[in-house]
Specification:
heterodimer, A: about 325 residues, Ammonium transporter fold, B: about 450 residues, alpha/beta, Rossmann fold, six-stranded mixed sheet, four-stranded antiparallel sheet, about 25% helix, about 20% strand
């Protein structure tokens, strides 16, 4: 069947066609790529890990629903914030704290700035920074890895503001062990992920695989993780050569939250530079700060603060790394 | 040694050329009525020189050039002028146009005319002949061709570049012209090289047209320094500055004309139109139009009389499919969507693309997430993300500082934008706002 003319004419501005990618598609791909990370967190920390992640996610979603402009749940970005926050917390953290963290991340990390695309700092890390300040003990109480799947670690169901300090079996993170007790951790557990730590940060290889998938689909700019990891590796190698007591590159790369931070946090498009040159600078800055904090700082881990600090510098990096325009004097001189 | 003839950045929209790439050019019969707007080219609109009731023959001048950067308009068929009135123009406005009721019994032969021998003509004479024939750039911009044949004396032009890239998706009119009429294109090149006193010519053709490349190579005579150069398939390869970079490796300085680096670019269609002038003496009264799209029943490459209404053209191509949604004059990247199908085909109409509903842009726009894809797409190295932020709050002066003037509205940024932000549209509106502000103050 054919008509003489279309029954209804659409008139839009050029270009009239568009690539298939959309912002929700990117966001949901990031969500799906986190599935193996979530599975591995459940493998190492059991049910408790899932409870923490689910609580953070639900809390973030509800806050987005309550505070965001209508319909913003569907774009998937609040889902990412909730999942990433959950993945950076210890398995035994009381769930009411986790819920507060999720709400804070969305409320103060995103919606008060104007919603998606407007925030300066990574929302998940804003939530985590708040929890670190508010509940310094709970957020550094690391349950031991392993045990049965259904075993509830720590003090998950403590009542708000009434819970006794947790009495669960705890261990230290590899970075904590190194900083406070001067003992190292074998490379194999570090890479595989059966060490103490936040629920989603220990399985470095799984995180890398997720990042690789996203980079291949171009849902993540590879320059940022590459720049961070290269910087950390180079700096720590130099430090290790100068002073053998300092951790070597492998330990630095595979311990703590570096992988999760480099692959999933620093690459947040909203809070990282738009220019490719800027992305290298951004990653370099994070790498340097991570090494500085870990080696000389008071905290064992510094990925969160390194990323938040470089988030703050992102507008300046953008301004300083504008590409030279086609046919401009600078380009022709080259 | 350069291995790839290319420019940096750009995008790869689906080519969609298979609908018409193998279809030979056919002639469309004359419609009952033609509508010829007086403004069909960049520069000053033509001056009317007929009145209602006049009988005009095919090829007669109906409006004369108004100054140097202007060209005359000719009747594309014999018939009677029935009205001179404002009529829907393909750019979306209404413009003064001459309506001609086509004489069904006329033989549609042009008046006998003298065909100038090009070998003996001076540059000025060729320029005058080309202007009188109403030839404009047929690649879409419709800039009067003769102006480019007489570049300012202070620049020495060393290379004539012929634009056969045809990088817009769907369009195949230049492709078919080169594949079917390579000798005519070469004849036009010869006239142009003679007029401009240029000894070197390069024809840039995207690699997705192997038959056109092959036909053109065979048509090149031994004594002429004409190179047929296959180019990387990428949008906007056919943008003037991108093409010059791909061919010569040189960037045209920002804000300057190509002639400052010693080259002049002409579209394949314009070259063929010039050949027509010196072969038959016919002015530009018809052009090759690709009528295509997944919303059209019978896609075709057609020789269409200028002034044919889109309605008639679509009806000749079998009408549209039930899911047809958007009618675009030109390619889908830079073309103009039509609201009124009474608008006519004009000299700059490269194609008519009818998109099916599922191909059109979604109406949902998300906030900019600063992913940076537009920066990687922009062929002139702008920061469309930043420019878009400025445009939406109306900070046009800051956009000038961010090099808005270098934007050529190719739409690559809006094509890749995952948030579906109509960046090219915002920039066009900002340019317009700046232009008005300037006109108001001076």
């Amino acid at each position: 069947m054919s008509l003489a003319t279309p029954s209804k004419l659409i008139v839009t501005a050029s270009p009239h066609v568009k690539s298939a990618d959309s912002t929700p598609k990117i966001m949901w791909h990031v969500v799906f790529s986190l599935a193996p990370v979530i599975v591995s967190s459940a493998w190492f920390f059991g049910m408790s890990a899932l409870l923490v992640i689910v609580t953070a996610t639900i809390s973030a979603q509800l806050t987005e629903r309550a505070m965001g402009k209508g319909g913003t749940l569907a774009d998937g970005s609040a889902m990412i914030t909730g999942l990433l926050l959950g993945l950076t917390l210890p398995a035994g953290m009381p769930l009411w704290m986790v819920a507060i963290g999720g709400a804070f991340a969305i409320a103060f990390g995103k919606t008060v700035w104007g919603g998606l695309g407007q925030n300066v700092f990574n929302p998940a890390l804003v939530g985590r920074a708040f929890l670190q300040a508010a509940f310094p003990v709970a957020i550094t109480t690391w349950p031991t890895v392993g045990g049965s799947f259904m075993e509830l670690k720590g003090d998950l169901f403590a009542l708000p503001f009434l819970h006794p300090v947790t009495n669960a079996v705890t261990s230290a993170t590899p970075l904590g062990l190194l900083k406070f007790e001067g003992t190292g951790t074998a490379l194999m557990p570090l890479i595989m992920g059966n060490t103490g730590g936040s629920v989603g940060e220990t399985a470095a290889l799984v995180i890398l695989a997720g990042g690789l998938y996203l980079a291949l689909r171009q849902y993540l700019n590879w320059r940022i993780p590459a720049s961070i990891l290269l910087t950390v590796a180079a700096l720590s190698t130099v430090l290790h050569l100068v002073d053998a007591k300092k951790p070597d590159a492998f330990f630095m790369l595979f311990s703590g939250g570096l992988m999760l931070g480099a692959v999933y946090m620093a690459t947040d498009m909203v809070t990282s530079p738009v220019t490719n040159k800027g992305k290298w600078v951004f990653g370099f800055g994070i790498g340097v700060l991570v090494v500085l904090i870990r080696v000389w700082g008071g905290l064992p881990e510094g990925v969160m603060y390194a990323i938040l600090f470089m988030n703050a510098l992102t507008p300046f990096i953008n301004r300083a790394t504008q590409p030279a325009v086609f046919g401009s004097a600078t380009r022709i001189a080259q | 040694m350069r291995l790839a003839f290319d420019f940096r950045h750009g995008v790869h929209p689906p080519e969609e050329k298979e609908l018409t790439r193998a279809l030979p050019i056919r002639r469309m019969p004359y419609p009952d009525e033609l509508v010829l707007p007086l403004r069909q080219h960049a520069g000053k609109p033509a001056k009317l020189c007929v009145k209602v009731g006049d009988y005009v023959e095919r090829g007669d001048t109906i409006a004369t050039a108004d100054g140097f950067v202007s060209v005359p308009i000719h009747a594309s068929a014999s018939g009677t002028v029935t009205a001179i009135e404002f009529w829907p123009h393909p750019d979306g406005s209404y413009a003064e146009a001459v309506r001609i009721a086509v004489d069904k019994y006329a033989p549609q032969l042009p008046r006998p005319r003298l065909v100038p021998k090009w070998e003996g003509l001076t540059t000025e004479q060729v320029v005058a002949a080309v202007q009188n024939a109403g030839v404009v750039g047929l690649g879409g911009a419709a800039f009067p061709t003769h102006v480019k044949l007489a570049p300012p004396k202070e620049y020495a032009v060393h290379t004539l570049i012929i634009n056969g890239a045809e990088c817009e998706p769907y369009l195949t009119s230049d492709h078919r012209t080169m594949a079917e009429y390579p000798d005519r294109v070469l004849f036009g090149i010869r006239v142009m090289m003679h007029a401009m006193g240029v000894t070197k010519c390069v024809v840039g053709i995207e690699k997705n047209k192997p038959d056109a490349i092959e036909a053109m190579r065979r048509a090149v005579p031994k004594e002429l320094d004409v190179t047929i150069l296959p180019l990387t398939v990428k949008y906007p390869q056919g943008a003037e500055k991108m093409l010059i970079q791909a061919v010569t490796g040189v960037e045209v300085p920002s804000g300057k004309l190509p002639v400052t680096v010693g080259v002049v670019v002409q579209n394949v269609g314009s070259v063929a139109a010039i050949a027509e002038v010196f072969e038959t003496g016919l002015p530009l009264i018809e052009r090759i139009v690709t009528v295509t799209g997944h919303g059209l029943t019978k896609p075709a490459n057609l020789i269409v009389p200028v002034g044919t209404k889109l309605r008639d053209l679509i009806a000749y191509c079998g009408g549209v499919t039930p899911d047809a949604a958007e009618v675009i004059l030109g390619g889908p990247m830079m073309g103009v969507a039509q609201a009124n199908l009474d608008a006519p085909v004009v000299k700059g109409t490269t194609g008519v693309v009818i998109l099916a509903a599922h191909e059109t842009r979604s109406a949902t726009i998300y906030p900019c997430i600063h992913c940076g894809r537009c920066l990687d797409a922009c062929p002139v190295f702008l920061n469309p993300s930043h420019l878009g932020d400025l445009a939406r709050v109306g900070r046009h002066d800051e956009m000038t500082d961010a090099h808005l003037a270098d934007c050529m509205l190719c739409g690559s940024c809006a094509y890749v934008c995952p948030s579906n932000i109509p960046l090219a549209h915002l920039f066009q509106a900002s340019k317009e706002a700046l232009r008005r502000a300037q006109a108001g103050t001076s």
